Amino acid sequence: MKKMLQMAILVIALSLNNLIYAQDTIVAWTFPQNSADSLVDVSIPLNSSRYLSCQYGTFNSPTYYEIAIDYSLQGSGSIDDYCASVGGIDFGKDSVYWMVKFKTTGYENLKFSSKQKAMSSPSPLKELFQYKIQYKLSGTSVWNDLVNPVLCDNDWTTGSVSDVQLPAACNNQSGQISIRWLQISNILEKGNSNNFLDKIGAISMLDDIVVTGTVITDIAENNEITPSFDIYPNPSNGSFTIESNKQLGNVKIFDIAGKNIFEKNINDNKVFVDGLKQGIYLISVLDNNNQTLTKKIIVK
Predict the structure, then answer these.
(1) Residue 202 has pLDDT above 50, yes or no
(2) Using CA atoms, how far apart are residues 69 and 87, in angstroms rounded to an integer?
(3) Rounded to whole angstroms, how far apart are CA atoms 210 and 271?
């Protein structure tokens, strides 16, 4: 009986540990039917205005330009799922690249996933795209390889990468981190690199771009700055109080997918919230100094 009790305690402890250290979606582009565009689809609050771009050449150079993105092609999911696509990149070696930017303030153990597909007309099964996936930190000009090469074909599996670990240098960054997919080959026909006749109209497609991470415990507790509000109880059963040592102006609550599920303007230092379902939430508070602070709460 004692051994069974110890085992039950261990299982509960492991379950709580997995909940506390669960991967949060920091930023994601999934291109659903009701939002198939360049703007991020899921994010933590500080990444809510991030977008996807496709570019040619070096920024600010005479030959640089942005490539128009189409969002009407079928994505990797159901019939209601779309993707980002660009054409006319048959000879885009070392010049054409997709790119996203985001911040990781308060997060570590970062992981990255994406899906790519290539096709051309009239011979959809003969091309082989090659890409590097690279990252760059804010204030630097050096691109570092994450995955090299990524081979892409006329499917959503060949060019997929899943849970690629980002370097520790990307943790807790208040400056922008950039990730790009750089085309490193022209579009050649498999088995015959001299035949470009049916490569006109090659298309690159991108879907399900996801960056996840875990909240840094000491930052979550200390709020990156001297704490100015508390949440109690935490963990909670769905009912809790947010209390500040300053007057609160606005309180927002975001679920793990980055959706704003609660917002209230108040002129007090305390607000009561009730009825949250089980999960992990981010509480964003604007104090009377117009300073936005965030904390995590766990609802069990």
Answers:
(1) yes
(2) 8
(3) 33
Tell me which fold the domain 219-299 belongs to. Answer: Immunoglobulin-like (2.60.40)
Where would I find the H helices in the chain? 2-20, 217-222
Backbone angles phi, psi at 33, to 5 degrees: -55, -40
The residue type found at 188 is L
- CB-count burial class (<10 Å; 0-12, 13-18, 19+) for 204: buried
Rounded (10°) CA dihedral 153, 55, 87, 112: 30
- DSSP-derived secondary structure letter, 277: P
d(CA 66, CA 57): 9
Domain ranges of the chain: 20-215, 219-299
**pLDDT, tens only, 142-157:** 999 999 889 888 899 9
Torsion of CA 251, 254, 255, 258, to 10 degrees: 180
20-215 against 219-299: fold identical: no
State the Cα angle at 292 between 40 and 110, rounded to 5°.
Answer: 45
Confidence of residue 177 (pLDDT cuts 50, 70, 90): very high
Across the chain, the runs of DSSP E, i.e. the strands, are: 24-29, 42-43, 52-56, 65-66, 84-87, 96-102, 107-119, 127-136, 144-152, 161-165, 177-183, 188-189, 203-215, 229-232, 240-254, 260-273, 279-287, 292-299
- For domain 20-215, the CATH class is mainly beta
